[in-house]
Amino acid sequence: MKIAVVGATGLVGAEMLRVLEASELNINQLIPVASERSVGKLLQFRGQGCGVVSAAQAIAMAPTYALFSAGGGTSLALAPLFVAAGAVVIDNSSAWRMAPAVPLVVPEVNPEAAFGHSGIIANPNCSTIQMVVALQPLHKAWGLRRVVVSTYQSVTGSGQQGIGQLMAERSAAAGQGSAPATPFYPHAIDLNVLPHIDSFAQADYTKEELKMVHETRKIMGLPQLMVAATAVRVPVVGGHSESVMAEFTTEVDADQARALLQQAPGVVVQDNPAQNVYPMPTTAHGLDPVYVGRIRKDLDLPNVLHLWVVADNLRKGAATNAVQILALLEKGAANR
């Protein structure tokens, strides 16, 4: 099995390499792919040096799979070329997510969708992934009707530019440097929160918020599901957090919800308010699970639950989910 990682020198690409390295996948050759300025750079993978190559060189090497994390424009241009060379593309950008013929897959939620691909599988948005992993077992029990979510998203979701602005502002506040002359965000992020992720679009919702609406419906197979999202950037490095209000078609029970989530794949429940136990970004940093806590029934509505959901957006929100899809396909191929 030959695996190309397109965007291997970026934040998510580097995380993909770490997740692949730690996996049990039988990888015969790792092909790191990046822009021309990075070609020739040596990356370490399982004790061996792997030279970064161009996309054209990688295509000529006929990889079995290509994991993409290089932006939507790159994915639109290059993914079909990798498919034509025989690769299955697992794309982390938003380019293909809502294409009708492209599966949008979270292995804990809709694994069967992965096998309906025509060469390209889309990896969902990081915020969507962790939310649907937490909601799926509850939907099976009570039938999901409506979701209202507010996110608290790490600057790592903006890549190195977001991290750089936060750290520069923090250093400037400590008198050890100056704030960036051309900040990435429209306002300061240190000691601040920004209710603004991606550009504003339909009805003054941002693209990030609309992704959560449309992707959740597609992944869960609920085209009529009501979803309202408010996406907020916070001065955190390590993971995304979400306050989720979930309304169901029947009455719910918090203790039963806790038990269902404790048994759910990919979920770790941390919910002991008396001991101040609940998930935080520091809980999830560098780890793969989706952490759920603050599980409680609404005080007024018997069919509503409130949840606090946290995951590392570079791991389960991106790299880990992509590698899980790859492993799912390999397991399916081995069983055929």
3D architecture notes:
With 336 residues, the protein is an alpha/beta fold. It has two domains: 140 residues, Rossmann fold, CATH 3.40.50; 186 residues, 2-Layer Sandwich (Dihydrodipicolinate Reductase, domain 2). Helix content is 33%, strand content 22%. A six-stranded mixed beta sheet has the order 9-8-10-13-12-11. It has a five-stranded parallel beta sheet with strand order 2-1-5-6-7, with helices on both faces. Helix 8 links the parallel strand 11 and strand 12. Helix 1 packs across helix 9 and helix 4 crosses helix 9. The longest helix has 21 residues. The protein is globular.
- What is the beta-strand fraction? 15-25%
State the domain count.
Answer: 2
Mean pLDDT over the full residue set: 96
Please give the count of helices: 9
Instruction: Give the C-alpha Rg.
Output: 20 Å
